[in-house]
Amino acid sequence: MAMSMKKIGAIAVGGAMVASALATGAFAAEKVGDVDAFAADVVADGNANVDIVVGSNAAALDVVSAANIAAKIGSLMFTEGTVEDGAATVSVSAEASSDDFELYIDGDGEQASTNDVAFITSPDKDYNDVFVGVGSKGDFTYSAIEPLGKLDTLTEVDDMDPSEWVSGDEDNAAEMAFVKVSGTNDSNDGEYDILEGDAVYLSAAFNDDKDAFETLSVGYRIPFLGEEYAVVKVDNDDDYIAVGKEVFDGVIKEGESYDLGNGYTVAVDSVLSPLSTTDEPKVNVKILKDGKVVAEKFDTTQIKMIYGDIGVVVNSAWQNVGQDYGYAEILIADNVVKMELGEEFLPDWEVYAFDSNAMTLEKDISDISEVANVTQLSGVALQYSGDDEEDLEKDDSFDIADYLSFELEDDDDDINAYFEMDQAKEVSLAIGQTVNVLNAEIKLAEIDAEAKEAVVMTAPIAVLDSEASLDDADKGLILVGGPVVNALTAELADAGLVAIDNESPATLAVAAGAANGNDVLVVAGGDRAATEEAAEALIDML
């Protein structure tokens, strides 16, 4: 067996609002209406004067075009002033490979591995030892195991309990990938199978020494497919684990609230004294939309509440010495995802809870073992549920949860097996915010601008046609995509205000006053390439 280290390729971070990266040449488009006047008015008083709308059925190129138009308009909004607050979208790219293993040696006419060999990788090779040490057990069965070291771009969280809700130890959470390869030792043909159930992506909780699993608790931060999430609920009755992106973690005083934006707020309405010193205070917590209560709980802690994609956890509460008012320690998350155990989370990948004692994947939380009355729920896993991948040979690869891959590399007719990742993700950050994505910690320190006086700058954000309306628009609209993919463009076409079909060239068409008295610019063409060309032509004009 020969092992060699494959080095990390690159981690590149680029801002989505860098104008020089958006347009690199002249693009032609047919103009209908006063396009020049519309383009000259996209920014007014340093702020975006338009909204950008992309179709719900849009192709990927349409979405990219909408983002590029938004970025170009954002670059026009720099004016004299001091940037005291703001946000930016950042693209993070990462590429890396694990160690490799000589799976098949053609020159010797033999297969180097034993049958049913399992390969494993993680962001730190120390995590691999928890599998190597226990041997074959539970769902993790194999004749031999080969740890392939670390894959640098897998994500780990150094302190999964930053608020010390459960303990003061800086325990960790990490991603791992596990693939069992089945071969026929006596055939010596260099072909292998990866069967249904024999590939697992795992995000698990570990102790600080990385040599044992920890119990996963509400409030813990865990990585999941390259991004950091907070656990907001583990539902034993409906068998799901809910995670979301942290937006607030701290203390809110009774009678005060936290504004999430888009009309949503989380309010601590009241904190009532307990009946005895051994009881917890009761907290009334509410989620409001435009001032109207849409979800409410009144209970002792720990309170867990989910409404739509908003998750709220009240971990503890107390009153001041004079018992005049109270405080609640609270975690608020958005983009909450309910992972229904035993159900398909991604195509061909089902989600399970990880029982670290039995080393099994469970779809019923009640089946997870307990040790000293402590549940051994230690993570969330995605298990391959697709068809058997048979007769894999050199230069073949196996995709793992659309996140990383297991590669069989041709090396002078030998076969080397290794894990590889080439990923890109976009994250939005406010000034001063730090996020962990693809194992890179990204912080938006500031947005530079020459200053004379403070101004407010709000960059445009592309929305779906299902979230916009011609009748309710309060500013001009840029519609990206033709009537087939963009419902608002279809409305204009049905009304005879624009004429775009499958044969149309790249077109910029203005429908005057069509959006509640505001002008509308349609950026489209007969196909996605023509739409992209129209978008680039608009960017050149701005």
TrEMBL record:
It comes from the Archaea. Residues 34-542 form the S-layer protein outer domain. Residues 119-451 form the S-layer protein central domain. NCBIfam families: S_layer_MJ. This is S-layer protein (TIGR01564 family). It comes from Methanococcus maripaludis.
